[in-house]
Amino acid sequence: MINIVLFGKPGAGKGTQAEFLKEKYNLTHLSTGDIFRFNIKNDTDLGKLAKTYMDKGDLVPDEVTIQMLQSEVDKNPQSAGFLFDGFPRTLAQADALDQFLASKGQSITATVALEADDNILVARLLERGKTSGRPDDQDEEKIRNRYDEYNQKTAQLMDYYKAQGKFHAVDGIGTIAEVTERLTAVFDTF
Ligand code: AP5
After folding, report:
1. Which of 24, 48, 104, 128 is catalytic?
2. Residue range 149-160: average pLDDT?
3. Coiled-coil annotation: which residues (predicted)?
């Protein structure tokens, strides 16, 4: 069983690459952003709460996000492994994930980060915002706020996983196929 954290700044390509990786490696893909958006679309209490944060580009509070993620893992008891996309995003989330997996006799196998220059990523998101309808992609101020959140709360997780010898970086610039090839080369080592 392998459990992988797919890591990267907003727009790095986590969701795009996860679609391929989950099939190739038979992993259950859990994207916290997608789960929140599903709840917003269905007007659940969780969705209403998450929307107040997501629309501004702020992180949803840890306790809400951690509980949601754990419940999604528990919905997949037969899973051969998980591909975590957009989680963890804070040290509290990383610590909770480690403890939660340990309680099941599991652990994170590796964290794989997609690396790319901020300006390229902002351009990608502004382009997607034209057609996706994602409120947090609509203007540069919200996108920049997501980067501020990343820099203040998420970037430190690289050191957290490096200290465990579990951090791998992959160049996220190039065509989608080129990035997939680089990721596959790393995933094949797990
Ligand atoms: P989330 O949905 O996770 O958004 P994000 O991290 O900002 O990630 P994106 O989906 O924007 O980017 P991505 O890296 O998946 O790239 P993608 O493949 O889509 O989170 C949204 C919000 O939810 C957060 O801001 C927060 O409020 C909340 N949230 C989520 N998780 C949370 C957590 N753990 N704790 C608290 N709050 C949480 O690609 C982006 C675009 O680029 C696409 O248009 C794609 O087609 C294009 N693209 C991809 N690869 C390439 C390439 N190689 N070349 C050119 N274009 C490319």
Report:
1. 128
2. 98
3. none
Residue 169 bridge partners (DSSP)? 113
Count Cα atoms within 13 angstroms, Cβ side, for 148.
9
Both structure tokens of 3: 């459990």
128 marked ligand binding residue = yes
Residues with CB under 6 A from ligand 1: 8, 10-16, 32-33, 36, 53-54, 57-60, 65, 86-87, 89, 93, 124-125, 128, 136, 146, 174-176, 179
Q: Is the pTM of this model over 0.90?
A: yes
Rounded to whole angstroms, the Cα distance separating 190 from 14 reads: 18
Task: Please indicate whether residue 144 is annotated as part of the active site.
Answer: no
Catalytic residue among 89, 124, 142, 153: 89
Q: 4-187 domain in CATH 3.10.20.740?
A: no
**What is the model's pLDDT at position 162?**
98
Q: What are the tens digits of pLDDT across the range 6-27?
A: 999 999 999 999 999 999 999 9
Q: If you write DSSP's letter for every residue of 144-166 in order, what string do you get?
A: HHHHHHIIIIITTHHHHHHHTT-
As a whole number, mean pLDDT of residues 70-77 equals: 97
